[in-house]
Automatic annotation (TrEMBL):
Coiled coil: none annotated. This is Putative NBD/HSP70 family sugar kinase. Keywords: Kinase, Transferase. It comes from the Bacteria. GO terms for molecular function: kinase activity. Belongs to the ROK (NagC/XylR) family. It comes from Leifsonia soli.
Length: 298
């Protein structure tokens, strides 16, 4: 039995996975804010899963944590997880000290990539394109995460596509993330709706010209991310996940339309079948927590 925990900005998902990789238990907790609260949330998640499975922390084959921010997988240190109130936290070491067993910590998008790969029964290469507040991808090659030489592999949200575009949080201008992410939409489409992208698509469906223009930029940005992932890594599948993926077929249809338009003018792109490589993560599946459970051995 393996245990995986996905610590998000508002909620924490914890799962137990059996020897065949099947999810057997799942709990959700509110995530605390700040160093101490995040640590206590993780400890509580382990305790809840332990109650459901009848296992002490040392009884699990492995324990993995997925968390936002920059993660040093060797030390378990987490840095710059702004939504959790973390600047620097030795999460792996501190949690291991509390539980009495080793803990593996991984970036949440990379953990989700591994979870999606396993859940969908994929082989070969896959990219998990996470569209949330920002944009990032996790890459899996033959069942193992590909992190690159410094762990930065997949940070395609910070590829500049418009030199005259808005200033990105990373310090560059016109990054993909500024148009193809939740924060990019919120900036362009101010609304009181707690889900700005939902409000945007509703306005676009009602014919609002500004909303349609923003939706077109969003779809083109996501399609550009798909193209980059295929042309650089030649992934066989691009799985779209994250908050924006809850739009489902509405979003996927817009992206497919852009990709098909490109194929009509580029025999080269047509030969790559980009639309055929893109799919959505199954709705309401805890892929990051599932991936975290697998990270302990990856």
């Amino acid at each position: 039995m393996r245990l995986g925990i996905d610590i998000g900005g508002t909620k924490t998902d914890a799962v137990a996975v059996d020897e065949l990789g099947a999810l057997t238990q799942r709990v959700r907790l509110a995530t605390g804010f700040g160093h101490d609260a995040v640590l206590e949330t993780a400890v509580a998640a382990v305790a809840r899963i332990g109650e459901l499975t009848g296992l002490a922390p040392g009884g699990f084959q492995s324990i993995g944590i997925g968390v936002p921010g920059m993660v040093d997988t060797a030390s378990g240190q987490v840095a710059h997880a702004v939504n959790l109130g973390l600047e620097q936290l030795e999460l792996g070491g501190m949690l291991a000290g509390r539980l009495g067993v080793g803990v593996r910590v991984e970036n949440d998008v990379k953990a989700a990539a591994l979870g999606a790969y396993h859940l969908l029964g994929l082989t070969g290469t896959m990219a998990f394109l996470n569209l949330g507040t920002g944009m990032a991808a996790g890459i899996v090659v033959d069942g193992r995460l590909w992190r690159g030489s410094t762990g930065i592999a997949g940070e395609i949200g910070h590829l500049p596509v418009d030199p005259q575009g808005v200033l990105c949080a990373c310090g560059q201008r016109g990054c993909l993330e500024t148009v193809a992410s939740g924060s990019g939409v919120a900036r362009q489409w101010p609304t009181d709706d707690p889900l700005p992208v939902r409000a945007l698509f509703l306005a676009a469906a009602e014919g609002d010209p500004a909303a349609r223009a923003i939706t077109a930029r969003l779809a083109a940005g996501i399609a550009s991310a798909v193209r980059v992932l295929v042309l650089t890594v030649d992934v066989g599948t691009v799985v779209i996940g994250g908050g924006l993926s809850h739009l489902g077929e509405r979003l996927l249809g817009e992206v497919h339309e852009v990709l098909h338009d490109w194929e009509r003018t580029s025999p080269f792109l047509a030969s790559l079948d980009l639309p055929g490589r893109v799919r959505l993560v199954p709705e309401d599946t805890p892929v990051a927590a599932l991936g975290a459970a697998l990270v302990g051995e990856n």
